[in-house]
Write a structure and sequence with these properties.
single chain, mainly alpha, 23 helices, about 65% helix
Length: about 575
Amino acid sequence: MRSRAARIATLTAARRRPEGGWQRLRNPDVWRRLGAFLMAALVMWAVSGGWSRPFPYRSGYIPPRDVVPRKAFHFQHGTSAERAFEVGDRIATQGKPLSPRDLQVLRAEHQAYSADATWIERLAYSLARIGVYLALYVLCEYYISSHDRRLLGDFPALVRILGLVVVTVTAAVLVSRDAWRAESIPLVLFGMTLAIVSRREVALVLSLVVALLIAISLGQGLYEFMILSATVCGPVIMLNRVRSRTKLIYVGLYGALLTFAAVIGVGLLADQTFGGMYADSWTFAEELTDVPGGYAMKLVSGASWYAACVILSGFIMTGLLPFTERLFDVQTDISLLELGDAAHPLLQELAQRAPGTYNHSINVAALSESAAERIGANGLLVRVGAYFHDIGKMLKPAYFVENQGCDGNQHESLVPAMSTLVIIAHVKDGIDLGREYHLPQSIIELIEQHHGTTLVEYFYRQAERKVAEARLGDRVEEADFRYPGPKPQTKEAAVLMLADATESACRTLTEPTPARIESLVHEITMKRLLDGQFEDCGATLQELNLIEESLVKSLTAVYHGRIKYPDQQTA
């Protein structure tokens, strides 16, 4: 094993030699991610008709100037006579909302203009569209590499997110027709989903990017992009922990208030009205502007429609939540509370076959939850993970001291190396049991990492002592007495490691006074720190100090002294 100084030197050297652009291009993972992105980009290009410019007008749009044809064309409405429009003829009047007939004429003009485009123009526009997609992808990858690097290393998760982007853009294009104008619903669902499965900062950035993709695909301008951004930013910012079934509905309600205000503000800024359903009929909607206060009524009606879409998104997301958790293998607080039920078959079996380990797990859960909450980590995840972290011990319960009864110590008949293998095996057995009972991956990772690569010190010292007594001159390899790891990769795993070790160690104290508990917890924390167990979890020294303080406080409360009653006999 390398020394602590050597590990620090390696990390310092790595910081001084950042990975260059050409070195990154030689990384096969970069090309895999780029290939997945190109597939997603091509699908979005095809769905949105990326070879020609989208139709830019919508119902209720108030043109700032007269709209004239870019190309001569013919238009026929129903059984009426065909009318020819020449370049320069007026199709729509400045300052007057577009009527249904205006939209039909404008759509005919747009189709005639698009049909006249050459293949070179179509190719140039297609390359420009793909270029915008590529630029946004590069920016997003750079941002994610700085804020959520684990996501880039998880290729299946990245593919699922790219697929979700494609589905969102496709759905937005399909529901953006004038009768609905509901493109905000898929966008808000996308933002809520990402806020649940990833960090909120990442979800916010990716949601804004998808809002821009939708605006480009629909031919919308800056004001429409501002509205889409407002509809998705509110729910994403407010969505933190989902601890109840109504959480997403309340998020939708609060997001709707923000959306309503944003649409009103953007409408006044742009002197436009936005939304899908202004009134019960097109005729009434067309004439409403001429009525005193009609513009304000249409503005409020459009803002109400966008707000209603956000509220509806909250209800839809509530129904989609179980499928989202399964698809992305994430756990909300709701699913964690269900998983942590004492009636879980695995916990029931642990309580029956290894009651000492079960009691130890309950104590570790209480210790680790408060410590995790102290540093802002997911305390509920750590608590549920602590329930299951030692389930592997139920296969050989008699080999662990908390389960040993009158039968004595099973390790007395084994050599230290064999005892170490039995002890270490409980981690692998726990992983296998977790997968057999379909535990979430986040819980399995806590089972796998809660010992890291720590040394099974008792049997290592015993092996050294036996070699010294035998005077064989052999050297005991420390690596043979270490857990296989990996080291804790998250702060939650680091908290569980310390809670597990300190709870077990405090049971060995004959007089667990507060001073002795504090000294023991500090000693264990420093030993794990100097052993390099916290190098990969992102925990700072300040956070480790807060964890240590929380564990000392909790353990002192558990092992507090009691007043001896007058008739009480010493045990």
